[in-house]
Amino acid sequence: MEENSQTMALSIKGAAELVGISPRHLRRLIANQEGPPLIRLGTRTVIRRQALADWLKSREEASAA
Fold first, then answer.
1. In the chain, count of helices (H) and strands (E)?
2. What pLDDT score does 1 carry?
């Protein structure tokens, strides 16, 4: 499924591509509860764009401290 800038929710693969990391690395972060929050929609797991942006901002602030 192709995701564009209008999509509110991203797949793990789409979120990883947007951030510039591998989907495997993002899954590891999520498994260790260090990644962005997920939403489960039936069998599909997605990440809200805003949640991804908030997570990135929190990582930025944590690394600056």
1. 3, 3
2. 47
